[in-house]
Amino acid sequence: MATNELKLLGCWFSPFTCRVQIALNIKGLEYDNIVESYYPKSDLLLQSNPVYKKIPVFSHGDKIICESPIIVEYLDQVWKDNGAPSILPSNAFDRAMARFWVAYIDDKFFNPMRSGLIAQDEESMKKHFEQVEQVFMRLEDVINKCNNEGMEFFGGDKIGYIDIGFGCYISWVRATEKIKGIKLLDETKTPALVKWAEAFAVHPAVKGVVPETNKLVEFVKGFVQRLVDATPQ
Amino acid sequence: MATNELKLLGCWFSPFTCRVQIALNIKGLEYDNIVESYYPKSDLLLQSNPVYKKIPVFSHGDKIICESPIIVEYLDQVWKDNGAPSILPSNAFDRAMARFWVAYIDDKFFNPMRSGLIAQDEESMKKHFEQVEQVFMRLEDVINKCNNEGMEFFGGDKIGYIDIGFGCYISWVRATEKIKGIKLLDETKTPALVKWAEAFAVHPAVKGVVPETNKLVEFVKGFVQRLVDATPQ
Asked: Which residues in chain A (101-140) have CB-CB distances under 8 A to chain B?
């Protein structure tokens, strides 16, 4: 596949961009990495994703695909026979479960995490981060079940759809912990998830893709300030 | 497939339950229809969907699957070779597009629709229903493109994933129009979508599944009152 056939429009700090990058790495695909300016949004972004105007946008020749879970499924289907590992399970029920948990993570994790980050008072912050911890507790149950069946990752002995779907947020969790001076991913509460996060971070398809914590901390501080400025108090 | 192998826990008024019923009809599958009491939620619902505590819940033997888009994909994968039509396109890009639009509909349509229904002042109602109309305008473009290629439905010459994903809401649109005395699905603005909605409603897999408008009007009035009572003004 010629490099210029595959293009990814994204940003280094975007967990959703990371998802696609990890999936492309798993599949061993080369691609053009196009950096989105984001502030302000580029004409390319506005034209290629007119519905959401959000990154990542993936191009495969003249085909444009948006929304990270959908892009990952697309990559997995198109390059299912190139010798690389599959990302979603082939079994229909396991596949349904993988989709369920990724949708759950996107539904229940991102908003409370963001709200906790921009919360200006202790009580409000605590309330939002309690919801984040509830997500961790549920995922602890899921990864524990995997571990009990001898599997290191949600995807089994290799990282898969849930690993990518949740793992992309781990750098943001670490950065949030540093900024707020709190512990979110706590090994006394979710030991299996902490162990999973460590194994995920050093996986060859992940390393170098997810942002380095200190670099992200600086970005997140500016990101939070912009959100605070834009949010009615 | 023995009837008692397949069970659907749902409600007649739930658009999400309707999605699964239509998919089961397309696949020609018999199933036990278990009526959820919902007010209050049954023990069966709380036990079988502890994460969301929402209908529909689909059981295939001892396998339990929640969330209507995920259930529909599951049905399509498991019964892909039973002679019935497929629900999702087989082509990876068309599949990605189908997932994109159903996710868009669930993201952008349901909340404004609900907010418009419970809005107590004209201005607020108008604002929410304008968002609903924006969704219609986008879908008008999509169905127009299908029509121009000689296809009656989003799914081609047969109903598919987007048809089910959006069609399940049409009865709620009709009921809302009656209750509020307004026109939402307007043939002067979205003629192709209006024509599509008529063809969808009389499709053999749909007829008898989606609620009859007058019956739904009575239910929606009570539903709205409960939401209004529960919403801080």
From this structure: 103-104, 138
Quote the CA–CA distance of A203 and B146 in Å, as a whole number.
Answer: 43
pLDDT per residue as tens digits for the range A131-183:
999 999 999 999 999 999 999 999 999 999 999 999 999 999 999 999 999 99
Ordered domains of chain A (ranges, CATH): 3-78 (3.40.30.10), 92-230 (1.20.1050.10)
Q: How far apart, in Å, are the Cα atoms of A76 and each of A8, A157, A165, B93? A: 16, 17, 14, 12
Whether A3 contacts A32, CB under 8 Å:
yes
Mean pLDDT of A218-230: 88
B71/A96 Cβ within 8 A: yes
B51 touches chain A (CB under 8 A): yes
B80, B79, B64, B73: which is closest to B1 by C-alpha?
A: B79
A57-60/A63-66 β-pairing: antiparallel
> Tokens 């079994």 map to which residue?
A91
Do B85 and B158 touch, CB atoms closer than 8 A? yes
Q: Tell me B32's DSSP state.
A: E
Tell me which chain B residue has its CA closest to the CA of residue A135: B51
Reported ipTM = 0.94
Q: How far is A60 from chain B (nearest CA, A)?
A: 10
Give the β-pairing of B6-10 and B63-66.
unpaired
Residue with tokens 């009389």: B202
Chain B nearest C-alpha distance from A70 (Å): 6
Q: Exposed/middle/buried for A64, CB within 10 Å: 0-12, 13-18, 19+?
A: middle
**B95 inside 8 A of chain A by CB:** yes
pLDDT digits (tens, 9 = 90+) for B51-87: 999 999 999 999 999 999 999 999 999 999 889 999 9
